[in-house]
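ok so dumb question maybe but i'm new to this and my supervisor (M.) told me to 'just get the structure for rRNA-processing protein' and walked off. so i did the thing. is this what she meant?? sequence i used:
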Amino acid sequence: MYALPPAGRLADVLWLSLRLLTLHRTASSTSDPATLLPSTTNIAGLKRKTTWDQRTEQRRKQELAKKKEREMKAEKEAEKDRKARILKERKEKEREKERLAQMAQKMSAKKLERRKRRMGLTKKVAH
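this is what came out, is it supposed to look like this??
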């Protein structure tokens, strides 16, 4: 019925896969619903490690995990930026307050100097 396979390991696998393929085709030509389901074996007759549905489900779960991780990372980065912005604004307000205090002190000194001059109290004349 079938010819003997040629010598060699690869040839044995190919011959076996060809034989299984022909057997699978004859079995799937019937209208039996069990044979119409996707097989859990590959063309060489070896059992598949994972089915396509399992792999797609696994990929979907990995994508969801990555998406969640990216969201958490973005939230953390936004919080860090917000804190840095608040700190920068606080330091800017502090510098402005210091500048205004120095300006007020300088203006106060000038005003005091003008009053002394009006009263006649200067360094040139000792009263």
